[in-house]
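Bug #77: duplicate submission created two jobs. Keeping one. Sequence:
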Amino acid sequence: MSPKLKSDLPPGQDVYQRILSDIRCGARVPGDRLTEVDLAQTYKISRTPVREAMRRLEADGLVEHSPRRGASIRRLDHAEISELYDMRRVLEGAAAEFAARAASEVELSELAAIHRAMTEAVGTAALYDLNQQFHAALLDAARNRFLVRSVAAIHKTLLILGRSTMADGTRAVEAIREHAAILEALEARDPLAAGEAMRAHIAAAHRARLQLLRTSRCKRDME
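Kept job's structure:
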């Protein structure tokens, strides 16, 4: 974790983004304590912007307070994980349906370009970034700002789950194939097929996530 803050963001927002980045990459994991003193020392900043960042993280549902431990990164239980993916299926399935009707030819070309780049990508980080770009571009093409906000809130909570399932090479191959099916339905302007393909994609991601969590849990138990 780099202690140097970005100069182009207000301090509170920068600390908030840095903590989100740490959670995303697994540098901070569920159960980790977050104290104002430690964070202020890490980022060499006063406690006021740290306090602001902590309030935002708590409002996002990423941080919780307990009487004995203070603030810590939330742990999601099995039911919460399933509920999040259930909502992803509903919302992103709807986004694919909307995009099949509303996407411009330029937006479809951009989605195709992202998909091609993903087929050629090397490494988990590149695959993760391109996967995020594909879903974000599709969501923009859906033309529904309320849907965008709802999906963004879910994706932010999913950060707690840690490293990307794209670390599994098999899952990466499957995801690329699933994206191809979504893209084909979008280009055919078939809302029903696009929605069905996206829901199947999210269901597969859910299964991969549960498998990853089981594997991680078994490794911890053996240590």
